[in-house]
Design goal:
Helices cover 44% and strands 14% of the residues. The chain has 13 helices and ten strands. It is globular.
Length: 353
């Protein structure tokens, strides 16, 4: 009976995947950026609205195939929001109870979406508290702690099978510079950067991977020092990325370069991007794109041509009461006029200096 239910659960997830289309690759209109093309892989168009839809699907399949999830197993996850939204969707698809353990500062829209899919939210004050509380709840409820921060890098097939890297390279085939010079990604679990970096090496591509880290996150310092014991006692203000500890899924060896991006630059960039796209994106997209523009500037200064690909991680509609609220930004991020001015100059020069 148990194997029958697992088989049916896997079939439901595979059928859901079969009904889903791939996400768009958007070429930005940047006429002053001569010889360099910048693309955004729009992950906000997944059924649950973010990049984490791919991850949640992989994590559920991984746990089902490992025998960790059975009929009626409560599902528990530590998440700052988007992964929990996607996992709540898949838990409902399988008829399983779901609890998200998340910081109390999580955007209200994400909380509402988790609850819409039938999930419950359990709040902690500090991001570092999510891990032990998730494990405790799983033990107490005899459930399964999915633990995206440990299993993200191993649950996804990095060799291909239409993972995000495979999709990017396929969609770039007919572009002027089909092999990206850079792919830029910000780390939350580190799972997506691990998948992209491994795929690049496995496919023997010349593309380099740049990982961009927000403030109040340890990945950048770990990459440069190799010290896995580094911790940060503050929460990242860019939801979905940045961590207070070095997560097991972050694989530094597949990363070619890292850049630390100020939070104010991330917020300024999503406002600038809105003028190009006509819609809002989350702040992690701003982190990604600001890093991509910095790389484009360096390429121009050294006479290089080529392409850069980064991601729209989720929609800005989730953050109307945070990154798009001037009072919240003033209290939590501070003035970002300096970066607004730099982006305006970029419009005229194609150089972010």
């Amino acid at each position: 009976m148990s194997s029958t239910w697992v088989n049916q659960a896997i079939a439901k997830i595979e059928a859901d995947y079969q009904r889903s289309a791939d996400t768009h690759l958007i070429k930005l209109d940047l006429p002053k950026l001569v010889g360099i093309d910048v693309y955004l892989k729009d992950e906000s168009t997944h059924p649950t609205g973010s990049l984490k839809h791919r991850l949640a699907r992989s994590l559920f399949l991984y746990a089902l195939c490992n025998g960790w999830i059975k009929q009626n197993t409560p599902i528990i996850e530590s998440s700052s929001g988007s992964t929990a939204v996607s996992e709540a969707y898949f838990a409902r698809l399988l008829g399983l109870p779901f609890i998200a353990v998340m910081p109390s500062t999580t955007a209200k829209k994400k909380i509402q979406q988790i609850e819409f899919y039938g999930g419950q939210c359990y709040f902690v004050e500090n991001g570092s508290q999510m891990y032990p509380e998730s494990a405790r709840l799983a033990n107490e409820l005899k459930g399964h702690y999915i633990d995206q921060f440990t299993y993200a890098e191993r649950a996804t097939d990095w060799r291909g099978n239409n993972n995000i890297a495979d999709s990017i390279f396929n969609q770039m085939e007919k572009e002027p510079h089909p092999i990206p010079t850079w792919i830029v990604m910000s780390p939350g679990t580190g799972g997506t950067s691990a998948t992209i970096g491994r795929y690049i090496r496995y496919q023997q591509q010349t593309t380099q991977l740049c990982v961009v880290d927000p403030e109040n996150s340890v990945f950048y310092d770990y990459f440069n020092s190799g010290d896995a014991s580094i911790v940060c006692n503050k929460n990242s203000k860019i939801e979905g990325i940045g961590r207070p500890r070095v997560e097991p899924s972050f694989i530094a060896g597949v990363v070619d370069s890292m850049i630390k991006i100020p939070d104010a630059a991330s917020v300024a960039t999503i406002q600038w991007l809105e003028q190009l796209l006509g819609r809002k994106t989350g702040a992690s997209t701003g982190t990604n794109l600001y890093g991509a523009l910095l790389l484009a500037t360096k390429m121009r200064q050294t006479g290089q041509t080529g392409s850069i690909v980064t991601l729209i991680c989720d929609s800005g509609d989730r953050y109307l009461d945070t990154y798009y609220d001037p009072e919240w930004v003033n209290s939590n991020i501070g003035c970002f006029k300096h970066y607004q001015d730099k982006l305006l100059k970029f419009n005229d020069t194609g150089l972010l200096i």
